[in-house]
Structures are given as C-alpha cells and as structure tokens.
Amino acid sequence: MGNGFVLMLSLVVLTGCTLSSVAPDRPLSQSDIAALVEKQAPAPAGMPYAAINRNQPFFTKEEISYARNHIFERYSRLDHLGRCGIASARIGQEVMPAGRRGAIGMVRPSGWQVARYDHVEGRYLYNRCHLIGYQLAGENANPLNLITCTRYMNTKGMLPFENRWRNMSGKPATMSCTG
User: Fold this and answer.
1) How many CA atoms are closer than 13 Å to the CA of 157, on its beta-carbon side?
2) CA 29 from chain center: how many Å?
3) Which of 22, 29, 43, 116 is the most buried (most CB within 10 A)?
C-alpha cells in the first residue's frame, strides 16, 4: 500500500479533528483505523485525502472530557521498525509557535530517501511531514512526529488543513493523526 496508505491514515483522520458527542467505547487502534480506511477508501478523484466515518472523529468520551479542559500533545513511541504511531493534541494559541520552523534534515523517518526530479515542484519527491504540523504545536525535529511522505501529500493534503486550523481565530481544536 505504500505512500497511499500513509496518506489515507494521516489525512483521513485529520479531516475529522473536532470535538464530537459521538465517541466509541474504547480508543481505536491503528489496525481499527486501517480497516475503516480500507473499507471507505479511495479518496475522491483529484483529492489528496478522503473523509472516513462520515467525517466524524473517533475520540472516546474520556478523551473528549479531558480535551475540553486541557491543552496537550501526545506522541506514540516509534515501533520496532522506527515508524511513528498515533499523535494527538488539543491545539490552541498557547502552543502555537511565534517563529519560523527550524531545520529538520537531521531526522530520518522510516522509509526516508532522497529523490530529486526536475518536473517536481521544489525538486524533491519526498518530504518529512509533521503528523501534527509545526505551525500548530511548535514541534520541530521531533522524530515521534515526523513521517516520510510525498511533497504532494505534504503541500496539497496536509498543509491546507494546518492553515485552516491555524486561522481558526484562537479556538482550540482536538486532533489525532497516525502515520
């Protein structure tokens, strides 16, 4: 499944990153999410992402209750293959950085490779992508928050959502993403 699978797991979950009164009885595992993605994928033609679960988030009642009163970030440990797991956060103005992002080139996420092409905007096919965007939480070179993705996924799939959340006029938002 390669990069398409990463795209679906990362962005599909991002599309429903709001609080909801609908909550499962237990946290969804990565395999639960993967099964939903497989069932509801692919993305509509021309779209870099697809909504799953009718664009409703999968937060448990406990997660919703906690998020109402806390600003937080949580990052799973890397698995035995060095892959990111679930990253979740309640983002708000309190954690958004004031400055520009620093260098992240020293982090080599799982699957990382350099591929340059003249016909690719920016020349590099692959990017290091933040599961929870730097502009939202200020996590720069955190290996628990960086995955390998295509430039298209990073700039056309993830960035528009990050920009939208950043400009939500200071309203906190809860999000959960998986690599």
Assistant:
1) 29
2) 15
3) 43
